[in-house]
Amino acid sequence: MTALPITTDRTKFLRLALAADAAVTGVNGLAYLAFAGPVAALLGPDAALLRGIGAFLLAYGAAVAVIATRRDISRTGTRAVIALNVAWTLGSVAAVVTGALGLTTIGAVWAVAQALVVAVFAELQLTGLRKSR
């Protein structure tokens, strides 16, 4: 299956939703990398795990930025971003519910807050994808 590019002005909303996601994700990733020790003490997970998450978020944010800045926004790439955002949201909630990461109370609140933000990005991107047809 080949990706059909989106090339109309109707992509502005989608492009903005992807760019905002990339920026927030990248900043979050940088914070986890740069301040893993203090953030681990506040949120609960091991600093090494936070560094790994930070590296992933930084790379993911960069990939989303690439999709957002292409002349033709890939529908397939956008769907992948939406799917990964949904997976992140569900994984965050599961981590809180199961206690798998040893989150502190602040960590659990942060995980739920992040899940909500990521879910909103997924919804905005889905809306943008629909509007771009």
Describe the structure.
The structure is a single chain. By secondary structure, the chain is mostly helical. The protein contains 5 helices and 2 strands; from the N terminus they run E-H-H-H-E-H-H. The chain has helices at 12-34, 36-43, 47-69, 75-98, 105-131; strands at residues 5-6, 73-74. A two-stranded antiparallel sheet has the order 1-2. Helix 1 (12-34) packs antiparallel against helix 3, helix 1 (12-34) packs antiparallel against helix 5 and helix 2 (36-43) crosses helix 3 (47-69). The longest helix is centred in the last third of the chain and has 27 residues, at 105-131. It is elongated. It starts with a strand and ends with a helix.
What attributes does this structure have?
133 residues; mainly alpha; two-stranded antiparallel sheet; 5 helices; 2 strands; 3% strand
